[in-house]
Amino acid sequence: MPTEMGIWRIDQDQPHRLQPSAMPLESQLEDFLARDPSLLGDRLLVVGRQVRTPYNTYIDLLAIDAEGTLHVLELKRDKTPREVIAQVLDYGSWVSTLERDDVIDLASHHLGQAFEPVFAETFDAPVPDEFSNDIQLTVVASSLDPSSERIVTYLRDFGVPINAVFFSFLQDDGRQYLARSWFATDESSEGAPSATRRGKIARWNGQDWYVNFGEGDSRSWEDGLEYGFISAGGGEWYSRTLRNLPVGARVNVYLPQKGYVAVGTTLRPATRSDVAEVLHQGQWQRLLDLPLEADYRRGLPEDETDRAEYIVPVEWDVAVPADQAYREAGMFASQHSACKLRQDFTLRKLAEHFDLDRTS
What we know:
360 residues, alpha+beta, 7-stranded mixed beta sheet
């Protein structure tokens, strides 16, 4: 059963409960969600409304989150329990077949402008290189009957990422209010809760991190491979996540548009390139004293900490040149400089390809 949410108005130290009333129009709730999907608790960007499928059916709302996970939002309206749940499952099966370019085309058409800048403005991050394979299915309703609740619970027990969210409409002294509650909750999630996954997407193992090693004039993978380090810089957004890497983290290094090239363990916290040291030939040596392919933003004034390049020394378990990078469809990729690597599929594929022991 969903958690009931009550709202009281306090008048002269006396609480007076506001009584729910019928939503004037369910289409009005769709309007609210289309304009502000954060009503669901997560930061989402709506990329389609009344999205037509190849089967002449229409998805009420299609949204995306910062990780590239697509959210199918279906309003119950006057559908029967079997109809609304069968419909949202059907929509999810179709959405799961969409390629990244398909989603971008849908979004650009819906938004009336290029998708990428809207995504960046919404999430303060660039569009991921690859979207998540996850789909979140959400039934939006004022309530569910016992039959629907039983079906949703059964599906969630088998790892289907389906949930239901309930909105109550309240009025008081000429003002209107919406109250929200979820059918199933996950205390570890700040936003919209999702179903427990069984053997598909593992929780973070507390050790593995993804690192995006973007090459250019300021950094070269040839140097990182030779001297054992990762780096990022050129702005606070790019270096902040790298600087948060803990010592002892296992980093899985990805070259944009190429693939994964290395796995190793961080040896020291991130430091500016002008003072950074790397462990080379058994000794700690100042990086900028070594022969390098890139400049690592040397010569920046000391007070320009945001633009500086930051270096993290790493002991490689395995590392290969760029022309041997490994990538398969569905593997995790992001433009974040560093983030927790949670996707079990990627970890498993890297272990198989590089013959790694992931038991530790």
